[in-house]
TrEMBL record:
It comes from Blautia wexlerae. SUPFAM superfamilies: (Trans)glycosidases. One of its GO terms (molecular function) is lysozyme activity. This is Lysozyme. The keyword Lipid metabolism does not apply. It holds the Pfam family Glyco_hydro_25. The lineage of its organism: Bacteria, Bacillati, Bacillota, Clostridia, Lachnospirales. Belongs to the glycosyl hydrolase 25 family. PROSITE patterns: GLYCOSYL_HYDROL_F25_2. InterPro entries: GH, Glyco_hydro_25, Glyco_hydro_fam25_subgr. One of its GO terms (biological process) is peptidoglycan catabolic process.
Length: 170
């Protein structure tokens, strides 16, 4: 399988110059859709528009703070409402790796993942899981590894230089 360069972005990255991102040859962008409190990420709309205008394939991720099935269903429903039938090239990724989820049982975590997935798939989107490499190795239930998984694994010498070059000066 060929490696495809891509980026994930959220409001923490500031305003993105998507034309510059496209010129770097980025094969995809995964956008954070909502943040803590289930509030839409303030940069989601301009980031989605920038990807579409610059022909960058796009997906989204939801960083979850849920610790119950009811909470994760609510998170999934807010994602679907926010997407409002927009086209995605990549999945809706459930980012399930917050400290509040560290001590959840594998059984509960699997039920939460399945509940989120069911809502996403029913709405016509592809589903995947996003987490750090360590979480994938030690926390993610084995049953969840059957789904597409995108793992964050940053190089030891990552200086953030590329990220800074992609920001639009204030």
């Amino acid at each position: 399988m060929a490696e495809i360069k891509g980026i994930d972005v959220s409001r923490w990255n500031g305003n993105i110059d998507w034309k510059t991102v496209a010129s770097y040859g980025m094969g995809f962008a995964i956008l954070r859709i909502t943040e803590k409190g289930n509030i839409v990420d303030s940069t989601f709309e301009p980031n989605y528009k920038g990807c579409i205008e610059n022909k960058i394939p796009v997906g989204v991720y939801k960083y979850s703070y849920a610790t119950t099935i009811a909470q994760i269903k609510n998170e999934a429903n807010v994602v679907i409402k926010t997407l409002n039938k927009r086209k995605l090239d990549y999945p809706v990724f459930l980012d399930i790796e917050d400290k509040c989820q560290e001590n959840l049982s594998d059984s509960l975590m699997m039920k939460m993942i399945e509940a989120f997935r069911a809502i996403i798939v029913k709405a016509g989107y592809k589903f995947g899981i996003y987490c750090g490499y360590s979480w994938y190795q030690y926390q993610l239930p084995e049953g969840a590894k059957k789904y597409d998984v995108w793992t964050a694994r940053y190089p030891n010498n990552d200086t953030g230089e590329l990220q800074e070059r992609l920001r639009v000066p204030a």
